[in-house]
Amino acid sequence: MSHETPATDRPLTTGLAEAAGMAGHAPSVHNTQPWRWKVLPDALELRVVRDRQLSAMDPEGRLLAISCGAALHHARVALAAEGWTALVERMPDPTRPDLLARLTGFTHTGADPDAMRLVQCMQVRHTDRRPVSDEPIPDAALDEIDRAANREGVNLQILDDTQKIQLASAAQQAAAVEAGNPELLQELAYWTSRAGTGTGLPPEVLPEQAPQTTVPGRSFGRPGTLPVGPGHDRAAVYAILWGSEDEPDSWLRAGEALSAAWLTATRLGVSLVPLSGVVEVDGTRQALRHILSDLGFPYLSMRLGLADPTHAGPPHTPRLDVAQVVDTSAVRDQRS
Ligand SMILES: Cc1cc2nc3c(=O)[nH]c(=O)nc-3n(C[C@H](O)[C@H](O)[C@H](O)COP(=O)(O)O)c2cc1C
Fold first, then answer.
1. What is the CA radius of gyration of the chain?
2. Coil, helix or strand for 155?
3. Of 127, 154, 199, 219, which is best to mutate to test ligand 1, by the most ligand atoms within 8 angstroms of its C-beta?
4. Which of 105, 208, 209, 251 sits at 20 to 30 Å (Cα–Cα) from 201?
5. Are both 292 and 325 inside the same structural domain?
């Protein structure tokens, strides 16, 4: 039985611009939103914005590409929710490394209800750095999150107790190394004092004191105003996203997997906090490789847990205006 529906009356370019706009909800390291979209008559292009790369913390651009990958996945889901399927070329032009992806070959089929649910999740997903509740995550929910990452071609290793301790030790070591890097601290100070710019981390989303967690979260260099309470995240699960290559296109895919896992987690009431300090420092990134039995390359570690349902979480971080991240100049006359 065919699920095809009649082609939509809405111009393709309107759908592309809207999907690129929805991708603005994606998570990014320090809320840098280092992407820009170009809407073309029959294509959508994703470019990296090097001005918003963290040159001290992320000189290789690993977290930059992961952030852009998350935006790419958000756009793909938004298109699917509107009924569009597309071909996705990652790193389509070796002579233009800043062109991260090109979406082409659009056909309009029926709107995908699963994608529609994930679009709703995009609008409520956020990073909640408070300790998670004592309630364990149901196994079925963890399996679903794992499968969501796997479908993007990336592995999600759920850590056992020994590996959790190893991750905690690596995170402590990474924090100590980073605390001794003045350029990195300056960069952190910049991204935590960006009020009114649509980027960066406002004090309301940063803990007022370090929460009690098995694996230490990132120190943002200044206390925020988010009350953390006395809880300890004993029921938290820690995991590492990893794959067989350590190249920009695999980092992009890691970002797509992060987005897929995070939106699925949101749908299931599971909170996810990326912990990237351990992949920013060479030595601790190697330690993560050992945790993975040297089977592949770590892209990002994360904490998963059920959010405390009795307290409102932190507010949403700001976002850049759509006009700053979506260029529709090539199709202005075609959009309704
Ligand atoms: C690649 C990547 C790395 C991140 N690393 C951390 C981290 O180490 N610690 C942390 O608390 N949040 C981390 N985050 C979460 C971002 O700070 C967060 O996504 C951003 O501020 C936007 O806020 P939102 O997720 O609430 O929309 C990371 C996010 C991404 C995509």
1. 20
2. strand
3. 127
4. 251
5. no
Atom of ligand 1 nearest to the CA of 314: 26
Tokens 């938004």 sit on residue: 78
Tell me the pLDDT tens digit for each residue of 85-110: 999 999 999 999 999 999 999 999 98
**Pocket probe mutation, ligand 1, options 30, 184, 301, max atoms within 8 Å of Cβ:** 30
Structural domain of residue 31, as residue ranges? 12-124+317-334
Rounded CA separation 159/301 (Å) = 10
Alpha helical stretches, state H, the chain: 12-22, 62-81, 113-124, 139-151, 161-179, 182-191, 248-267, 277-280, 282-291, 322-325
Distance 116 CA to ligand 1 centre (A): 24
Residue 25 CA, closest ligand 1 atom number: 27
Closest CA to 72 of 264, 317, 332, 258: 258
Residue 252 lies in a domain: yes
Using DSSP, state whether 239 is helix, strand or coil: strand
Per-residue pLDDT reduced to its tens digit, 270-301:
999 999 999 999 999 999 999 999 999 999 99
Asked whether residue 312 is assigned to any structural domain, the reply reads: no
Are 63 and 170 found together in one domain? no
Pocket mutation for ligand 1, best pick of 130, 276, 319 (most atoms within 8 Å of C-beta): 276
Query: Count of domains in the chain?
Result: 2
Q: At 70, is the secondary structure helix, strand, or coil?
A: helix
In a domain, 1, yes or no: no
Pocket lining for ligand 1, CB < 6 angstroms: 27-31, 63, 66-67, 70, 126-127, 129, 201, 217-218, 273-277, 300, 317
29 Cα to the center of ligand 1, angstroms: 5
User: Looking at the domain assignment, is residue 3 inside a domain?
Assistant: no
Ligand 1 atom nearest to 316, measured from its CA: 26
Question: What average pLDDT score do residues 314-328 get?
Answer: 97
Q: What is the reported pLDDT for 2?
A: 37
